[in-house]
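ok so for the tutorial part 2 we go from a plain amino acid sequence to predicted C-alpha cells. step 1 is just haveing the sequence, like this:
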Amino acid sequence: MLHGYCPPERFLSYLTWTQIADLPDKANTVIVLPAGSTEQHGPHLPCAVDTIIAAGVMGHALARLPASVPAYALAPITYGKSDEHLHFPGTVTLDGTTLLETVTQIGESVYRMGFRKLLIVNGHGGQPQVMEMAARELRLRHGDYVVLPHFTWRVPNVAGQFMTDREKRLSMHAGHAETAILMALAPHTVHMEHAVANYPPEFPSKVLSGDGRPACAWTARDFGTSGVIGDPLPATPEQGQAILDSLAQSWAQGIQDLFAMHWIERDAQTWGRSHHIGDIAST
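step 2 — the prediction. this is what the C-alpha cells look like for a chain of 283 residues:
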C-alpha cells in the first residue's frame, strides 16, 4: 500500500479533503516529507536505498509518537538529484532546478492546507543544499511557516559503534550503516553474496580535508566500477535493527519538539518576496 512504513492513520493522503479541513490545531501539526532518491547502491543493495531509509525511519518514528502529538507523513519523494551516479544503470535523476521547484511546490501545497510546520527529512547525501534552498524560499514567502530541512542520519544514533575508524571517515555510499539498516527494513532487497568493499583514496591536503574525505566534486565512478564507497561486509541484521531503533527514537523526539516549539513569526505582507530587500531588512 501507498503508506509503506508509515502507520496508515498518520498518512495524510489517506484522509479526505474534508477531514483535512477539519483537523484541529493545524498551525502546530507536523507534516513530514521524506525525500529520497533512485540511484545505484552497488551490486548488493537496491536503487531505492535512500527512499527506503528516509521513509522507513520516519514511519517507525511516527509509530512511536503518543496519540496526543498530531503529525502526518506525505508520500516520499522517490527521485532526487543523483547525477553523481548517472553512469550506473538504475539511476533516475532530476536536475537541481527541477527538484528545488518540486519541493517548493509541495511546501506551498502544505501551506495552503493550513499547516505551518513542515519537516523535510532527506535521505540522499547529494541534495541537502536543494532542501535548504527550498526551505529558505518558503520562509521568505511565508513568515509564519516553520520549514525544517534535516538529514535522516544527522540525529543521535548508534551506527558509529559498529563501524571502524576508516569507515567513519571515508564511507559515503552503500557502506556498513546503509547495508545494515536495509537488512532491517527490506532484507529481501539485500544481496550480500555480491557485496564488495571499496574506499576512495584519502584526499592529499589535510588543510582542505582533515579526515581524508574528498574535498572536491566527485562522481561515483571516480572511485571504481562497483559503485560502493565504503565497506558493507561487516553489516548484520542485528546491527541494522539497533540503528533503526535509535534513529526512530531520536526522530520521534524531534517531531514532538517541533510540535511543541514556538518560532519567530513575521507578518506575511512585510515578509513577502514582493517587497524590496531593504524594506524587509528594516522591519
